[in-house]
Amino acid sequence: MKLISSMVVALALLGATATARADFSKETTPPASAPAASLDAAQAKIKAGDYRGAIPILTDVIKANPNNADALNLMGFSLRKTGQSDLALQYYNKALSLMPKHLGANEYLGELYVELGQMDKARERLAILQAACGNCQQAQDLTAAISKGPGTKSGAWR
């Protein structure tokens, strides 16, 4: 029940605002009003594979700072890993509306597109990544996901 209420809050935040790995190498999110420890706690849950456990933490972070692209990206990742592709897509798009060159969001959105069999869109994300960072780890990971083919689940969080 707590997960459902967290999801309702998260959806409300998506509608109320302009819309896994925190990736600071190209662009950074403005300083968050929520403590960094909260984002760190969510990252620890994700690293442990507890995606459902990360969702309420990320909901709180996003509630405190709706324009935190790193938190939005991690929420998209957690939602994708719990089988909620439609919601994940919304969070990735919100993160990218704030930071179009966000490496993690571009990679993970591309991986979602691979899972959905939308290979042209996955390749678009790869082109954006390559323009932003060359042959960085995110571009390499997305290239690997694309090469595995449509419907492939991928995207381990590092």
Structural overview:
This protein has 158 residues and is mainly alpha-helical. It has helices at residues 2-16, 36-47, 51-64, 69-81, 85-98, 103-115, 119-133, 137-148.
Keywords:
mainly alpha; 0% strand; globular; disordered N terminus
Q: Which word captures the global form?
A: globular
- Please, how many helices? 8
Total count of strands: 0
- Classify the secondary structure makeup into a structural class: mainly alpha
Q: How many whole angstroms does the radius of gyration measure?
A: 14 Å
Task: Give the arrangement of secondary structure elements.
Elements: H1 2-16, H2 36-47, H3 51-64, H4 69-81, H5 85-98, H6 103-115, H7 119-133, H8 137-148
Helix pairs in contact: 1-3, 2-3, 3-4, 4-5, 4-6, 5-6, 6-7, 6-8, 7-8
Summarize, please.
By secondary structure, the chain is mainly α. Helix content is 68%, strand content 0%.
